[in-house]
Specification:
about 425 residues, alpha/beta, 3-stranded mixed beta sheet, 8 strands, about 60% helix
């Protein structure tokens, strides 16, 4: 069974927290030293140095002081803690900016960029870490858990990244890092307040410091404000997490589709790298391919066709192709000769070069159906709505397999890009089951 601290122990904890939260010379000295170590650790991309800076950073003291002040309704402690945290944060940001300006070639390393995209997971880590540190402080005041909490929540490095972003005039870096610091600070406060409440800390510890009228009114809502801040800060973190996972899924889809296409076009090929950008609902993909077979424009169109079906948007692929010779003691695959003029290869997918809307519509639908075995276009109806300037296309398709429900939307987006007007696509499927 957990043995919470008695009144005497609570008083000792209160005094210790008050001392750690004071913005004295020792506090500012440690802020300057830890900020210097963290900034140059971030700029030199050294994880070990950054961890060392977390260990000596004194910012946990004021944060825990603020939490204890809320739990005990201590006016003096909350003033001291808020002053220390604000001055410490400003000192760290300004110093980090100056230290960055001193270096003529300071770059945004991976250690810096890792602290610019916080997610809801960082909030959960900070909550657990704050609860762990406060629990250890209450149950075993002489324990050595707080250094581990300081490492887990990483308060100083995000502030240093804010300063680095300020020196580089990169406001995206500044905003992301400051959001991470706020999330960590608020989460630690909420977890620590809750833990101090469980441990039985009350206003009895600061009887001579509190204005009872203010304290009694504040006591009714003392958990409301921190929790409200926690909910508010979690919204952008959840959005960033969603955006990050969405980008990861898109990249995974692009990579798997390109690999699948290469396996069909040239089994001896491999995808070296890829980069993509998304603009105006279009994907522009740059890929590097190593292959023993010459890649022709028709092959690129086949890749685009598969990607358009899976992404549901127009795709443009540009490939840097590295032609290699594959040799062993039995075979010699030498396709360098393919670079010489010869009979044109059989086209895999016909590139759409149509001029009239009817030709573009029919070519696009047939192109997409090539990826659906057992499906073919029987006929289509084209209507034009003058009032809205919209083409309405109703395609009749015969298929022995189920048609993906997103196929009409994919065809619609591709046609809108090619025809440069609004398009509505409807699909009537005739299931041929033999």
């Amino acid at each position: 069974m957990i043995q919470w601290p008695d009144k005497e122990t609570q008083k000792n904890i209160y005094n210790n927290v008050m001392n750690d939260a004071r913005p004295d010379r020792y506090f500012f000295g440690m802020v300057i030293l830890s900020c210097t170590v963290a900034t140059y650790g971030l700029l030199s991309n050294s994880t070990a140095v950054v961890i060392g800076a977390m260990l000596i950073a004194p910012l946990m003291g004021p944060i825990l002081g603020g939490a204890l002040a809320v739990a005990t309704n201590s006016n003096d402690l909350i003033k001291v803690s808020a002053k220390a945290e604000a001055l410490g944060a400003v000192t760290a940001v300004v110093l980090a900016a100056l230290l960055t300006l001193v270096l003529p070639r300071a770059e945004l390393t991976s250690e810096v960029l890792a602290r610019t995209t916080p997610t809801i997971l960082d909030l959960v880590v900070a909550l657990a870490s704050g609860a762990a540190g406060t629990f250890a402080m209450c149950v075993r005041p002489q324990g050595a858990t707080l250094p581990g909490v300081a490492i887990a929540t990483a308060l100083m490095p995000p502030l240093c990244v804010v300063g680095i972003g300020l020196a580089k005039q990169d406001f995206a870096v500044m905003g992301g890092a400051f959001l991470l610091f706020l999330a960590n600070m608020i989460a630690i406060n909420v977890a620590a307040i809750a833990m101090f409440e469980f441990a039985g800390f009350s206003s009895d510890l600061c009887e001579n410091e509190c204005d009872n009228n203010i304290s009694n009114n504040f006591a009714k809502y003392r958990m409301t404000y921190p929790i409200a801040l926690l909910i508010i800060i979690s919204l952008p973190l959840a959005y960033i997490m969603y955006k990050t996972y969405n980008q990861a899924n898109i990249e995974k889809t692009i990579r798997s589709s390109l690999v699948e296409s290469l396996d069909m076009i040239a089994p001896q090929s491999s995808l070296i790298s890829l980069n993509y950008t998304e603009q105006d609902n279009n994907f522009n993909i740059d890929a590097a391919i190593r292959t023993t077979k010459t890649i022709v424009p028709e092959n690129i169109r086949q890749m685009e066709n598969l990607l358009e079906l899976r992404l549901g948007k127009t795709v443009v692929v540009s490939a840097d192709v590295f032609l290699v010779q594959k040799v062993n003691d039995k075979t010699n695959i030498d396709n360098f000769r393919e670079l010489l003029p010869k009979v044109k290869e059989k086209e895999v997918v016909e590139v759409v070069r149509s001029t009239t809307p009817e030709e573009v519509i029919e070519s696009t639908i047939r192109e997409k159906l090539l990826l659906l075995p057992g499906s073919k276009l029987e006929d289509y109806l084209l209507e034009y709505r003058k009032s809205s300037g919209t083409y309405v296309v109703t395609a009749r398709i015969s298929s022995s397999n189920p048609i993906d429900t997103k196929l009409p939307l994919t065809i619609q987006k591709i046609l809108e890009e090619r025809l440069k007007r609004r398009v509505e696509v409807k699909v009537d499927v005739n299931n041929d089951k033999k």
